[in-house]
Amino acid sequence: MSNVWSSEVSFENGHLHLSGISASTLASDFGTPAFFLDEADFRNRATAWGHALQNSFGENAGTVYYAAKAFICLELARWVAQCGIGLDVCTGGELAVALAAGFPPSKMELHGNNKSVAEIQTAIENGVRTIVIDSLVEIERVAMAAKGHGKRQRVLLRLTPGIEAHTHESIATAHEDVKFGFSIASGAAWDAILAARRHPEIELCGFHSHIGSQILSMDAFGIAADRLIGLLARYRDEFGQELPELDLGGGYGISYLPEDDPLQPDEVLASLYKSVEASCELRALKIPRVSIEPGRAIVGPTMFTLYEVGTTKEVVLEEEGTRNYVSVDGGMSDNIRTSLYGAEYTAVIANRVSTANLIQTRVVGKHCETGDIVIRDIKLPADIAPGDLLAVPATGAYGRSMASNYNHVPRPPVVAVNDGKARVILRRETFTDLLNLDV
Ligand code: LLP
After folding, report:
1. Distance 334 CA to ligand 1 centre (A)
2. CA 96 to CA 91: how far, in whole Å?
3. Cis peptide before 262 (omega within 30 of 0)
4. For residue 220, what is the domain's CATH number?
5. I need a surface site. Which of 36, 252, 281, 393 has the fewest CB within 10 A?
């Protein structure tokens, strides 16, 4: 059984505390709904992934690129830099945040299946270390932009190794019928290699793959690495040179529910090293420098969402029994993962002890939509009532970053808590913010 709460969360007589501050104090100081971020836990996870890559890969350790899409803001980008790891951005917007935070471009990587010419230009102009190329068109765009700046740009080719990792369909990215990357099996990857080699402005450093997200077993990563290494061998055989780098993406799972049992960074990377070493040995290849891009595994466990309960309603079910619908003051605008992927979460009443019976409950939001569900099925105390605080753990990844203004609901703030102090690092949106867009 694993723990779904970040390291500085504790419970005293049923009251949830983060770094010693009670949920009630956090709610009255910052309002609800809000994301509370455990800064120490974030820093520890970011550092742990960096160390684990070094420990397992030694001189073949590339870079741990934190995947900004999971969550990014200026302050968090600074922490990532302070923890000594790199940053993966996949749009001009994420790149803009990183540059505004002063994140060193020499430790950044640019992704995306449809990077605009402007995004490519900005990346090259600012010295972003690596561009991960996703299409033939983009090879031409990168070559042109690099030429325009008189630079030679380091690139990796994003490949689809033909693996469906065990995860929800819309977050599995490396089987064949997807928009991402060049397929190895169909020969598209080889065509891309030939195209990249035609441009002196492009320095082809190696290959990339990202096989999916919230993956809890290592097998798929090993198979993906093996297929990429197979292509490194073919490249060596054809051109008499070895490409020096692989980036094996992110996707490492976390615990959303107490029964989820994710591997620790050291275990993940020791296992990955073994696979890479074996695949290289088989083909008499030097072990390449290996980079990875965890997003969820770094930020996911570090935040919980705090909601206030607004209404409860007992609904009689067709089959048998009843379900308690508990409505909170957020919903699909701050957590779309339940309706989009069928994601599962747990929750606790954070402001008091309850000894009431646990009953069948559905936690729903305040949006005008039946699918606006935060937790589809959970047992919660029967006496849960308006004014109670409900804390949902493990919402740090793809929570605030996928938040929307549906129904003109302002997006919640992110409040960092560290050493007994809480401060807003991304403020709550206001109605004025929303109205400012109207012309
Ligand atoms: N690298 C690449 C190229 C990616 O596409 C992604 C995620 C990552 C790294 C980071 O993956 P992570 O370690 O966070 O699993 N919105 C979905 C997840 C989409 C992931 C997209 N790509 C969710 O909420 O589950």
Report:
1. 17
2. 9
3. no
4. 3.20.20.10
5. 281
Of 34, 38, 41, the residue nearest 21 (C-alpha): 38
280 in catalytic set: no
Ligand 1 near 67 CB (within 6 A): yes
295 pocket-lining for ligand 1 (C-beta < 6 Å): yes
Name the residue range of residue 247's domain.
111-294
Distance from CA of residue 144 to its chain's centroid?
31
Helix 74-82, helix 92-100: angle, nearest 10: 70
pLDDT digits (tens, 9 = 90+) for 335-360: 999 999 999 999 999 999 999 999 99
| Cβ pair 311, 327 in contact under 8 A | yes
| Strand boundaries in 185-302, DSSP class E | 202-208, 245-247, 289-292
Ligand 1 atom closest to 173 (CA):
5
Amino acid occupying residue 195 = A
Write down the pTM of the prediction: 0.97
At 294, phi and psi to the nearest 5? Answer: -75, 135
pLDDT beneath 50: ranges in the chain: none
Cα 159 to Cα 232: distance, rounded to the nearest angstrom: 12
